[in-house]
Amino acid sequence: MFLIKVFMIKKTFNKVILRLVFLQVVIITISNFLVSIPLEIFGIKLTWSAFTFPLVVLATDLTIRILGKSVARKTIAITYPLAILTSIAILLSEGSLMSVSLRIGFASATAYAISTLLDVYVFQIIRENYKAWWLAPGISTVFANIIDSYIFFFTAFLNSDDIYMAENWIEIAGSQSLIKIVIGLIFFLPIYGIILNYLVKKFKIK
């Protein structure tokens, strides 16, 4: 009976991780499709991916808060290689060169892995020392999005064949970071609070 319970718990645990991996891979893949579409708002250069990537930070923070650091780390470890493959595939389907697709795919997944792994530790430290529910996800939203944006654009577009992106990546990375932070704090932080409150009440999480 004990072994059956352990098996069922492990099976449920693996299903949760697979769903989290699927969610993050989808968001990253969509973001890589949108990053190739430049956008200018009131003279600020950025790309459409600024509106989708903050969802990754939201999902990561909720994972840490509800399921713990080990699940978050495992999710990131599985997502990383899959994100590279799906990103390359979506870029190739758009007609991008293999060299460009490989570079952007690697840049995107690496930026995701580094920013979210740092987010795991920053989030946990803040949450353990401060009780306000919004403080940890708020601070992690700022740092994770800045780190992700600069690592991605540096790796993907420094001296690249895409002249526009090669010439403007620093400005775009800065604008992208700012927009992602604003979107994360204004829109996704309240969503985080609503989902967290629902899960805490439903599963009686402390």
Description:
The chain is mainly alpha-helical. It has one domain (57-203). 82% of the residues lie in helices and 4% in strands. The chain contains six helices and two strands; from the N terminus they run αββααααα. A two-stranded antiparallel sheet has the order 1-2. Strand 1 (38-41) and strand 2 (44-47) form a beta hairpin.
A few lines on this structure:
This protein is mostly helical. It is 82% helix and 4% strand. It is globular, with a radius of gyration of 18 Å.
Detail the topology: elements first, then pairings.
Elements: H1 2-34, E1 38-41, E2 44-47, H2 54-67, H3 69-93, H4 98-129, H5 135-157, H6 163-203
Antiparallel strand pairs: 1-2
Keywords:
206 residues; mainly alpha; two-stranded antiparallel ribbon; 2 strands; disordered N terminus
DSSP summary: helix tally: 6
Given as residue ranges, the uncertain stretches (5+ residues, pLDDT < 50) are 2-9
Share of helical residues: over 70%
User: Which secondary-structure class do the elements indicate?
Assistant: mainly alpha
**Total DSSP E strands:** 2
Mean pLDDT: 83
Strand content: under 5%
Q: Report the major sheet.
A: 2 strands, antiparallel
> What is the assembly state of the chains in this entry?
single chain
Overall structural domain count: 1
| SSE pattern, N- to C-terminal | HEEHHHHH
* Major beta sheet, strand line-up: 1-2
Kindly report how far apart the N and C termini lie. 28 Å
Shape category: globular
